[in-house]
Design a protein that fits this description.
The chain is mainly α. The chain contains four helices and no strands. 70% of the residues lie in helices and 0% in strands.
Length: 121
């Protein structure tokens, strides 16, 4: 029988794993900011109605890319703490990273689907 205790049994758990989970709370904030940026960029160029009929493709692309960068910023925080948790030996350390990846992927798919619907209508 081993005399070494499991690392999680020594204290309240791995702080890096807790921070990785808490970092997911940054996504609602980044979503709101991404919405403001995505709507604001066409307005800066003088397009009040950001539709494919009236707005040039490069403005829409710029707005989407910038909004994606703003929305995905918390992903970097989650990556940092998730990797730290895995390095500390936490088996569930990748789960917050997977959740963050699904959120970013869903944001991309939702925006691409909305663009395709606007193109087809």
């Amino acid at each position: 029988m081993s005399t070494m205790a499991h690392p999680a049994a020594d204290g309240p758990g791995h702080p890096a794993l807790h921070r990785a989970w808490w970092s997911l709370l940054l996504f609602p904030v980044s979503f709101a900011l991404a919405f403001v940026v995505g709507e604001g960029i066409p307005s800066l160029f003088g397009y009040s109605d950001p539709s494919f009929d009236s707005t040039p493709w490069w403005v829409i692309t710029l707005a989407f890319a910038t909004a994606l960068l703003v929305f995905a910023a918390p992903f970097l925080v989650t990556v940092h703490f998730s990797n730290k948790a895995v390095a500390e030996g936490e088996q569930g350390g990748r789960l917050p990273l997977i959740v963050a990846g699904v959120l970013v992927g869903g944001f991309v798919l939702q925006n691409l689907a909305g663009g395709i619907v606007q193109l087809l209508s």
